[in-house]
Amino acid sequence: AMVRLCELLPSSETYALALLEYLKAVGSYARGFRLAEQFSHRFSTNGLIKALDFEFFVQLANSRDNPKAFCRKRIQELQRAVATNADDGPSFLSLGLALQILSPAGERFESGRKVTVALNKARSLEADNPWPLWALLREQLRHLDGKQRRMDDGVTGQASTICRNGLRLFPDFSPFLEHLGRTLLSSSDPVDVDRGRSLLERAIIADEECAGALFTLGRHYESLGDTVAARQYYTKVLESPRGTFYAKKVIERLSRMVA
Fold first, then answer.
1. Residue 178 CA to chain centroid, in angstroms?
2. Residue 231 to residues 75, 98, 171, 183, 227: CA-CA distances in angstroms?
3. pLDDT per residue as tens digits for the range 61-98
C-alpha cells in the first residue's frame, strides 16, 4: 500500500526520496531502479535521487555475468551525453556520481580525478545548485574509512570544511547542516556541541523530513538522559516519510526506554 501510494504522490522530491529509500531498505532493487530512472529525469538537479539511481543499478549489475562491463557501459553512455551537450549541468552531475558509484574499487584513484572534473563542471554550469558540492563531499568521504575517516571527518577535517564552504553558498541546504551538525555534536568542546545542536535544528527547519537530523538529536538527548526530548525526536523520525532507514534503530531505542 505504501509503495502504491508513493508512486502516485512523487510530485515532490521528498516523496520520491522516501519511496526510493524504502525500496532500498527492503531490497526491492529492480523496482527501485525503474522508479529512480523516472525520478532522476523528473528531478534532474537532485543529486541524492541520482545517487540512489546508480546504487540500484549496481545491485542489478551484480546479478549479471560481467558486472564491471555492465557498469562501464553505463558510464560510457553518460560520457557520450556530456560530449554532445557540454552545457548541461545535470548531465555532468550524473556523470560525476556514476563514476563515483559505478567505478570498480581498483580504479578508485583514477576515477576520483574524473569525478572531481565532472562535478566541478556541473558546479560551474549550475552555480545555484548545491548538489554538485554535496557530491564532492561524498567523494571526499569515499576515499576514507575507519580511523582515517574519523580523523578527517572531525571539526577541522576536509569534509567539515566542504560543509562550511557549502553553507556560505547555500545556508539552508539540509545535508550540509546535518553533516556539520552531527560532527560538531560529537566534539568534546561544549561550544561546538551547542553549535552542532543549533545546526541540526536548522536542518529540520529547512527540511522537516530530515530524518537523519531528527535521529541524531534524539540520540543526543537520550545520551544526556533527557528521555522526554529523545522520545519527541524519535517519534518524529517514525512519522517522517524518510524515516525508513532509521525506523528499526528508533524502535529498539524506544523499547529500551520503556523497559
1. 10
2. 44, 39, 28, 22, 6
3. 999 889 999 999 999 999 999 999 999 999 999 999 99
Provide the 8-state DSSP code for 28. -
With CA atoms as reference, report the closest residue to 158 among 129, 179, 187.
Answer: 179
174-185 vs 190-206: helix crossing angle, rounded to 10: 160
> Quick check: 192 pLDDT over 80?
yes
Extract the C-alpha cell encoding 68: 564491471
Interatomic CA distance for residues 52 and 1, integer angstroms: 22
Distance CA 147, CA 144 (A): 8
Helix (H) or strand (E) run with residue 23 in it? helix 13-25
Q: What are the CA-CA distances from residue 50 to residues 44, 54, 83, 177, 225 (Å)?
A: 8, 6, 19, 21, 39
Split at pLDDT 50, 70, 90, the class of 112 is confident
Name the one residue in this structure whose C-alpha cell is 545556508: 171
Specify the DSSP element, H or E, that contains 69.
helix 67-84
pLDDT in tens, 154-169: 555 778 888 999 999 9
- Tell me the pLDDT band of 6, cut-offs 50, 70 and 90: low
Residue type at 145? D
Alpha carbons within 13 angstroms on the beta-carbon side of residue 40 total 26
Task: Supply the angle between the helices 47-61 and 131-142 in degrees, to the nearest 10.
Answer: 50
The residue among 55, 44, 45 whose CA lies nearest residue 20 is 55
Judge contact between 151 and 157, C-beta under 8 A: yes
